[in-house]
Amino acid sequence: MAKRIQISQHGGPEVLQLVDIDLADPAAHEVQIENKAIGINYIDTYFRSGLYAPASMPSGLGTEAAGVVSKVGSAVTVLKPGDRVVYAQSTLGAYSERHNVDANKVALLPDAISFEQAAAAFLKGLTVHYLLRQTYEVQPDEVFLFHAAAGGVGLIACQWAKALGAHLIGTVGSAEKARLAKDSGAWATINYREEDIAQRVSELTDGKKVRVVYDSVGKDTWEASLDCLQRRGLMVSFGNSSGPVSGVNLAILNQKGSLYVTRPSLFGYITNREELQLASSELFSLIASGAINVDVPEQQKFALADAQQAHKTLESRGTQGSSLLIP
Ligand code: NDP
């Protein structure tokens, strides 16, 4: 038996229920992991609300956690019981005490990184890795726009940009979040509840604007983001925190300067063990060196049984950086 958070229908945080399940032994290519810290991601709210559909109902929730390998499938050679590990996968169910995971989605955790740091940083840090290093390779001294800079993904992006010597302009929803983003390495911030995003980006860049915008806010910022781009610039739309972008007339890309748009997902960049190893080793060395700090504030560590409250806090824009469930 294992406790897990389960949904039987879509809805608000109240549909998250703590239940006992019979957990099978891991399949041949899986390992069973005793979760020590579980990462909360905004995508979890999409699967709960119905914006994204789980494979079947009832469904577990959650895509990442850190813990200890307790059982190993018959075909697994790269992991053994007792290994400290972290995982991120598109299959749901990480909101649980124990979980069976495809061994190719699991990375060994260096001793210098705690379970909580790993669960706070893995999926979000791998996301920042592909965004800044692969989708568009941000250069030293380059100025670019990154929305929700004080969020989980955002605070890692601020620190990674600083490590690259790049100049991240971060949008934020409050003065306190602006301070935090600046302290984490943002070059400049824009409070998008009070300031005009495109106008401020133009001012900050002496009218040049930017070659790339990373937008996870979605519906509310789509058009302003396009207005921040230079001719032939790249719009990276990678999330829906305010709702999905829909009904786009492609002619807008022509009107705003022959722009490019991409809508990437982490799981299109991490498709095998080699890609996972490459990206995670870069992330782990930045965390171990102190260049990226992912310590989670105590008020953002929730018991597994308090998943409802964790989702309420995240969706009310009440969090800074990452949040965790502790089984
Ligand atoms: P965050 O911690 O960033 O939380 C979301 C933040 O978005 C809020 O704190 C808030 O910050 C901002 N926001 C702006 N408008 C709204 C709104 N209307 N409602 C709620 N929040 C709003 O979450 P994560 O770090 O987990 O994820 C960030 C984004 O990245 C999400 O959209 C997620 O889906 C996306 N993502 C995409 C991936 C991919 O590969 N495509 C992978 C990982 C994450 P503020 O108050 O400062 O505005």
Can you give a write-up of this model?
- The protein is of the alpha/beta class and 327 residues long.
- It folds into 2 domains: 2-121 and 267-326, Medium-chain alcohol dehydrogenases, catalytic domain (Quinone Oxidoreductase, Chain A, domain 1), CATH 3.90.180.10; 140-264, Rossmann fold (3-Layer(aba) Sandwich), CATH 3.40.50.
- It is built from 9 helices and 16 strands.
- The protein has helices at 42-49, 115-135, 152-164, 175-183, 197-204, 222-227, 251-255, 273-288, 307-315; strands spanning 2-7, 17-21, 30-40, 59-60, 64-72, 84-88, 98-102, 106-108, 143-146, 167-172, 188-191, 210-215, 229-237, 260-262, 301-303, 323-326.
- The strands form 3 sheets. Strands 3, 5, 6, 7, 8, 15 and 16 form a 7-stranded mixed β-sheet that branches. Strands 11-10-9-12-13-14 form a 6-stranded parallel β-sheet, sandwiched between helices. A 3-stranded antiparallel β-sheet has the order 2-1-4, with no helix packed on it.
- α4 (175-183) links the parallel β10 and β11.
- α2 packs across α3 (152-164).
- The longest helix has 21 residues, at 115-135.
- It starts with a strand and ends with a strand.
- 47% of the residues are buried.
- The structure holds NADPH dihydro-nicotinamide-adenine-dinucleotide phosphate.
